[in-house]
Write a structure and sequence with these properties.
With 271 residues, the chain is an alpha+beta fold. The chain contains 10 helices and 7 strands.
Length: 271
């Protein structure tokens, strides 16, 4: 049995696959730190492992070029793509949110804020809950209460996640169960890491990330989502990067991964 089958099946079971979005995931996760360019042969091989047909990839690249995300050029016999300046400018904020490290310490102080434009988790009646050290947004609250969180029922925890976010986190957990059981070769590690970050990227960019302390219990075990993603990412990356190091006659080589790449999901004091 294909060890990646549960991951690939899950990718294709969620409606029509947006191949262009998957290509953006590859650029952000595996291309930008390696000189910013990738040959269509390597990209096609990677996405082919994920069940993407070559015609669908060509259509996606054409759309991304038309929308100003990527540019292409010929280098020898290879056709290569890279993000345009416009595409690069859209990456900065997203990259920070996707690869931020798990919180280093529990939340000790919370803010309960009322007023238009207040960030946080909705508690009803217009009240929003957020960690005391989180971004408070640009609008001052009409009312704010600061202190400890002394009680939060299971029923209340469930109301903090909408149905789409809960389903997305449950799907992520199933993917992680599969990934954590893998002993992949470099090619499969690169494919599995792409699928992991593709799912995680969509969750982080679509939904506010609840602090671990307020998640329902089943979504905090065996570890909270960001911590599990970080651990799986670190486990896959050495082998995945070896695949991007590889070259042969029809797959153009890529620059070596820089030492700065290790910052992903890590606090500055970690090595």
């Amino acid at each position: 049995m294909d060890p990646l089958a549960p991951l690939i099946d899950a990718l294709h079971s969620e409606g029509r696959l947006r191949v262009w979005s998957l290509v953006i995931t590859v650029f952000g996760d595996s291309v930008q730190h390696r000189g910013g360019r990738i040959s269509t042969a390597r990209l096609g091989r990677l996405l082919g492992r994920l069940g993407v047909e070559q015609g669908a990839l060509r259509t996606a690249l054409s759309r991304l070029a038309r929308d100003g995300w990527v540019t292409s050029e010929r280098i020898g016999r290879s056709s290569v793509y890279r993000l345009s300046q416009s595409g690069l400018s859209r990456f900065t904020e997203a990259t920070g949110r996707i690869y931020a490290p798990p919180r280093a310490a529990p939340v000790e102080e919370w803010v309960l804020a009322l007023g238009p434009g207040q960030p946080g988790l909705p508690l009803g009646g217009g009240w929003m809950l957020r960690p005391g050290d989180a971004d408070g947004g640009t609008m001052p609250p009409s009312c704010a209460v600061t202190g400890s969180l002394s009680a939060l029922s299971d029923e209340m925890r469930e109301t903090l996640l909408d149905e789409g976010q809960r389903h997305a986190l449950e799907a992520l957990s199933r993917d992680l169960d599969t990934i954590e059981a893998l002993s992949p070769d470099p090619f499969d590690a690169a494919a599995a890491r792409t699928l992991l970050i593709h799912r995680w990227r969509r969750i982080v960019l679509r939904h506010p990330e609840p602090p671990d302390e307020v998640l329902p219990e089943d979504l905090r075990k065996p570890a909270p989502p960001r911590a599990r993603v970080a651990r799986a990412y670190r486990a896959l990356s050495p082998a995945a990067e070896r695949w991007f190091d590889m070259q042969n006659e029809d797959v153009m080589d890529m620059p070596c991964v820089p030492a700065s790449h290790v910052w992903r999901f890590r606090h500055s004091q970690e090595t």
